[in-house]
Amino acid sequence: MNPPPGTKELRSRFKEVFGAAPDGVWQAPGRVNLIGEHTDYNEGFVLPFAIDRTARVAVRLRPDSTLRMLSTFGNQGLTTADACVLDPATARGWTKYPLGVLWALEQRGIAVPGLDLLLDSDVPRGAGLSSSHAIECAIILAVNELTGAGLSVEDMVLATQRAENDFVGAPTGIMDQSASLRGAAGRAVFLDCRDQSVRLVPFDAEAAGLVLLVIDTKVSHSHAGGGYAARRASCELAADVLGVRALRDVGVRDLEEAAGLLDTETFHRVRHVVTENDRVLQTVELLEGDGPQAIGALLDASHASMRDDFEISCPELDLAVDTARAGGAIGARMTGGGFGGAAIALTPAGAEQRVRSDVGRAFARAGYAAPEVFRVRPAAGARRLD
Ligand code: ADP
Ligand code: MG
């Protein structure tokens, strides 16, 4: 098989900067979450898919313990002469992500080798498409293979979570890396976050005459901000009060009783999680039956629930969603952790241009920064390219 376009360029760039050929090139995609938001850490269901935007790493093991890392996104790489600076306290900038992976491997007792690494990615940063896990998954795949560590996909999922949680300091779950590692073309990844079990579900929007548009509002989201942590804390508290291991164990039918046990705000948080889990299950059923044309109303309901009950939307996301719907999208919702980032709009191919221009105009009128709108397709998961 010929390596895909761009691989050769990455190889030769690697040779230029590091003076030797890489041992290989690995690729991992970003992801879009079709539905199932803030359900992951409640041990519930999510339905992301791997997208056709990827991080690629060229990697060479070194005979010594030196780590040298460069990214094409401005050559802001760090070059370390000393052995293994795998210390969360000193790691800075984007190298936290690759270093975090190496650190997580070391924590598992895997001897971390010295290496040269060149990263190139076209996953938009900080847009809620998980550019960070794309990097981490590409690297863990490379290191797993080059060192013969023999990690399973489940192991890699947990190791990259450890990297994000304990090294980078982002309290993320297992959704992003599961989508990146397990995704497939024309498929969404139905993931049960309790036991990591996965079922690939047909999601070929384009075959159904639809395009999936991402509307990046350019409002920066940050997991480090208080909102995400506060939502997690509410969910944990509610699970305690309701006497369940996680909100996954609360069903739609239990909501009435829950309302009597929780304060209003906490109840609204719970209602989002519980109904969102249910919407994921319904979406899966529809995709396996009627196809993507049938899921619009569930996307809309998901957005309303995040806006009104979970309160993680923002005016820019609401405007993107409302404008896309008015312009012909059959369903739209914010995606990702919230407080900024991107919305998705499932749009008939014939309405794409209208949605694009309407959203651009609406943002200009509101005085918001120009959003970026682009198509994504459910694409292959992480793999070796060359
Ligand atoms: P998201 O994962 O939603 O895109 P994060 O804040 O988790 O947002 O990750 C974004 C960070 O990932 C960036 O700030 C940067 O440190 C790193 N990153 C993403 N793409 C690249 C790249 N091409 N080169 C170097 N670092 C990158
Ligand atoms: Mg991220």
Note down, in words, how this protein is organized.
This protein is of the alpha+beta class and 386 residues long. The chain folds into 2 domains: 199 residues, Ribosomal Protein S5, domain 2 (2-Layer Sandwich), CATH 3.30.230; 172 residues, GHMP kinase, C-terminal domain (Alpha-Beta Plaits, 2-Layer Sandwich). The protein is built from 11 helices and 12 strands. The longest helix has 25 residues. The model has no long low-confidence stretch (mean pLDDT 93).
Quickly describe the structure.
The chain is α+β, with helices and mostly antiparallel strands. Helices cover 40% and strands 22% of the residues.
- What is the H/E string? HEEEEHEHHHEEEHHHHHEEHEE
Question: How many domains, in number, for the residues?
Answer: 2
Structural class: alpha+beta
Taken from the alpha-carbon principal axes, the silhouette is globular
Bound ligands, each once: adenosine-5'-diphosphate, magnesium ion
Strand content: 15-25%
Provide the descriptors you would attach to this structure in a database record:
single chain, 386 residues, alpha+beta, Alpha-Beta Plaits, 8-stranded mixed β-sheet, 4-stranded antiparallel β-sheet, 11 helices, 22% strand, binds adenosine-5'-diphosphate, binds magnesium ion
